[in-house]
Amino acid sequence: MKAGSLFLLLVLAAPNPPEAAIAYFSNVREIHVGQPDRQNFIVVDEEIWNHSRADLGDLRIYDGDSPLQYSLSEQRAGISSEEVEAKILNVGTVAGHTEFDLDAQGIAAYDHVRLRLEAKDFVVTASVAGSNALGQGPVTDFAPSTLYDFSSEHLGSSTVLKLPASSFRYLHIKLAKGILPLQVKGATISNVREQQASWTKVGSCSAPQQKPRATVIVCDVPPKVPLNRVSFQIAASQVNFRRTVSVEGVNGVQEASGELSRVRINRAGTLVTSEEMAIAVAGVSAGDAGKITISVENEDNPPLAIEAVQPLSLERRVYFDPKGKASLKLYYGDEKLSAPVYDYARFFHVDTSPAEAVLGLGSHNPEYTGRPDDRPFSDRHMGILWAAMILAVLALAALAVRGMRSEAKP
Q1: What is the C-alpha separation between 231 and 234, in angstroms, rounded?
Q2: Is 255 left (phi over 0), alpha (psi -120 to 50) or beta?
């Protein structure tokens, strides 16, 4: 019984959760603080990606021997929007033009109006005027917007009017000929606040190769840097196209797909312009091969005049408070270390104007010793465990034989 209990304890023995220690990090870099008296940040670069955990959970900032809390932030594009349904009033026709009023009650300020139009294949100009009294009082005119739908050409649509930040109670909208009053089905008014994403260039791409009905581009990218976007530069002279694009990773597995488009159409003196020159990728990495393959489907159309293709990674920033220190150290390269849980990250907010700190060159940590072997006893001493099991089996067998002999003597 004692041998069995000992064996069970040895098998179930597990190491304690890994702790951070300077000697356990393989790499180190100097942090030259931008301004010691305010919030700083560093940008995660290829050197850090190549020598840290895939989730960046092993990054640690030290002031001497003391750890310093931080918050890891992705610089994604953000849109915060307050949107309300607007009441449509006085819909009718004036001199062949559809006109109506929108009641903006329920939202303090706004800068976008989205119309729901039950119409296809049109281009119209929308004139907008704001006032605080319906049908009377001073009126403020806004720059006109162009609304369009190119369903037949498969070139998309837009029914959004963009305005400067406004707070008028009523908006009077006049549409150019082409939309009937019965086709105006609704409208929403919103206050949209946009934050642009920040990107880091990673890798490079070869010249496009023309294949039957497709253009293929092969890109070399760092194996461990996550890709979030592929941008295209296409000759400005090439307009009015929409092409499906696929991005393939290791073993030809499709990692992302999207569309490139550029629209410049003049209809009855109204110019419509829009373009989309990038494909979103969901944070994939190129793996050990370090390559991705991009295919632009041309179908029966001539190839696009692609001038450049650039893989991009969403910028990651490490924000911290240097607490008056002009120099700190960043340690990384400990696969067993899990991400820290900091109060600083829980209550984090970006200051109005944080300072960017400069990272020194990456180098091997001179204090590195590596972690001690913290595997369970069962993994580190398999020979001893097998010997213990064999001895236990032999002991049990001997006891069984002895018992059988004792029973046979009477």
Answers
A1: 10
A2: alpha
Amino acid symbol at 300: D
Instruction: Return mean pLDDT, the chain.
Output: 87
Q: What percent of the chain shows pLDDT beyond 90?
A: 61
Dmax of the chain from CA atoms? 124
pLDDT digits 0-9 by tens, 296-333: 999 999 999 999 999 999 999 999 999 999 999 999 99
Whether 79 has a pLDDT exceeding 50, the answer reads: yes
Nearest CA among 275, 216, 207, 209 for reference residue 242: 275
Give the bridge partners for 217, in sequence order: 294
Contact 259, 154 (CB under 8 A): no
Q: Tell me the residue length of the chain.
A: 410
Tell me how far CA of residue 170 lies from CA of 141, 166, 174, 222, 372, in angstroms.
12, 10, 13, 54, 71
CA separation for the pair 58, 51 (Å, rounded): 10
Query: In angstroms, rounded to a whole number, what is the distance separating the alpha carbons of residues 243 and 259?
Result: 5
pLDDT in tens, 195-204: 678 899 999 9
- Cβ(187)–Cβ(129) below 8 Å: no
In sequence order, the β-bridge partners of residue 89 are 101
The CA distance from 200 to 196, in Å, is 13
Distance CA 81, CA 97 (A): 31
In this structure, which amino acid lies at residue 403? G
* C-alpha distance from residue 340 to each of 60, 67, 347, 365, 387 (Å): 8, 11, 14, 20, 41
Of 11, 26, 14, which is closest to residue 337 (Cα–Cα)?
A: 26
Query: Helix, strand, or coil here: 403?
Result: helix
Is residue 317 left, alpha or beta, with left meaning phi > 0 and alpha meaning psi from -120 to 50? beta
DSSP state of 365: -
Beta carbons of 313 and 228 less than 8 angstroms apart: yes
Gap between the Cα atoms of 77 and 315, Å rounded: 11
Q: Give dist(CA 116, CA 312) in Å, integer.
A: 35
Residue 114 phi, psi dihedral angles, 5° rounding: -115, 120
Q: How far apart are the first and last CA of the chain?
A: 28
Q: Where would I find the H helices in 316-355?
A: 343-346
Give the span between the Cα atoms of 329 and 322, in whole angstroms.
11
> What tokens were used for 214?
């497709």
- For residue 11, the one-letter residue type is V
